[in-house]
Amino acid sequence: MGNSVLDLEVDVNGEEIFAVNKKLICSYSGRISKLFGRSKDAKCRSKVIFNDFPGGSECFEEILRFCYNNGKVYMNPSNVSSLFCAAHFMEMKENVLGSENLYEKTERFLDEIHDWSWPEVVAALKQCQHFIAMAFSTGIINMFFDSIVSRVMLPDETSPCSSFSSSSSSGFRLSCDTLSTERSKNTSLRATWWFDDLAVLETDLIRILVKMMISRSMNHRILGRFLFYHQKSRAFYTTREERIKTLEMVVEMLDWLDIRTLSYKSLFRILTDASNLGISQIYRTKLEQVIVSELDRATLDSLLVPSPPSSSYSYDIDLVLRLLQSFLSGEACNANRLKKVANLIDMYLMEVAPDPCLGPSLFADLIRAIPNSARVSLDRIYASVNLYLEVHSGLSNEQMMNICSGMHYQKLSGKALSSIAQETLPTCFRQIGDPGSKRIELYMKKHDYHNESKRMRAELERMESRAVQLEKICNELKVQMHRMNINSLE
Predict the structure, then answer these.
(1) Are 224 and 261 in contact (CB under 8 A)?
(2) DSSP per-residue string spanning 4-38
(3) 217: left (phi over 0), alpha (psi -120 to 50) or beta
(4) How far from 255 is each of 28, 88, 258, 268, 286, CA to CA, in Å?
(5) How does DSSP assign 319-361, residue by residue?
(6) 141: exposed, middle or buried (C-beta count within 10 Å: 0-12, 13-18, 19+)?
(7) What is the phi/psi pair of residue 93, to 5°?
(8) What is the bridge-based pairing of β-strands 8-12 and 46-50?
């Protein structure tokens, strides 16, 4: 890099130490010039240490090329972010020997961002992740955000093709012609073509990017899908601390979105992830509140959240009970929504009843969590209770009565009542009182199949013995009748 005296050492972020000519560097860099003042012509050897140089040693080497090549440097979208921030850091705003200074060069290059391709803009933005603070302070990152959001929000027919996606992306590798065909077939692809390229950004950048998109009235459903996609994709290659940070950011951003547009299944998925990762209770509570506000939109699959490792039963019953209590005490609960939730819980009871590890008290709490007034029929309750009692054969009468109390006669179908009357199940309901009674009690006696089998065997033996006796009597009667016939002929 020339034959100048190398009287200055520059330690760049502890990565590499560069030996340079102090006078030359001071002529281009206002920062270094201020550090040495008039001593820049002295013959003493000096050293400068930079701990937060944007772009690291690789970028500093580009700076040196600019200085030693009379203000000439090769610039492209992949290095302009670091060069711009480095020029700002080094205060390279003075022209030297008639050549344009580096700050102005990079600024002029950035002014042409509207002519860049999609992958070029994304590459420039990704580079900023290595020096986020400087990128924000200079305003360059907002320039990239503005360009990206504008392109994402373009009408379908003018949106960048997914073939423009950066080479590091893993999905949507389609040509323009292919995408044109896919657009007519798949609306989802048209709306999410940019997910792969941007989902790999740091969580802090995603937060700012999504807020900018919201400020420009972008579709909340698409933004919700993008946040869930970002959270899910980072789970595969980041540390536990980073996954927690990402998940908490997603929960925080839910306040900015219309909850009704979000995937309810995805909300429960991140709730499961939240339980596994152990996120802050503040964020977990906030997420549960969001779920509760739309609980009538839940499906059975959504509620089947695996229980935490500390629990023995299969599904997280405590979570469902907590959600129900919040829903019933909240403003979102009305008659129509309550009926939907009641129907959902009845189906949930049928799913959890066969769990051999589910305790009777918790099962009873789940039944009573929904008032019977919200249920049109109790047939599913009847079926789930019978199923539970079949599996849990060792319960005491008191435990069984606790589970089965509160059944209303008038809310059972004829088929259920017929089953009760016939007592066809191992544990069955028996109607007590007149048909107008509003309640039924459970007949808690379980069939003892072993004793009953012995009784039936004894009865069969008695009947067989009786049949032999009857046959013997019948034969004797036949003999007597034969004799009587002979006597009458004589």
Answers:
(1) yes
(2) ----EEEEETTTEEEEE-HHHHHHH-HHHHHHHGG
(3) left
(4) 48, 36, 8, 16, 9
(5) HHHHHHHHHHHSTT--HHHHHHHHHHHHHHHHHHTT-TT--HH
(6) buried
(7) -120, 10
(8) parallel
**Cβ atoms 73, 108 nearer than 8 A:** no
The identity of residue 390, as a single letter, is: E
Q: What tokens does 373 get? A: 């007034």
Q: How many CB atoms lie within 10 A of CB 473?
A: 10
The CA–CA distances, whole Å, from 339 to 149, 215, 373, 393 equal 42, 37, 9, 32
CB of 92 closer than 8 Å to CB of 28: yes
Q: What is the mean pLDDT of each run of 10 residues along the chain (490 residues)?
A: 74 94 91 76 78 94 92 92 95 84 94 95 94 93 95 73 45 44 57 92 94 94 95 90 95 93 91 89 93 91 86 88 91 86 93 92 91 84 87 85 73 71 47 40 41 60 76 79 67
How many residues appear in the chain?
Answer: 490
Per-residue CA distances from 320 to 302, 315, 392 (Å): 10, 9, 22
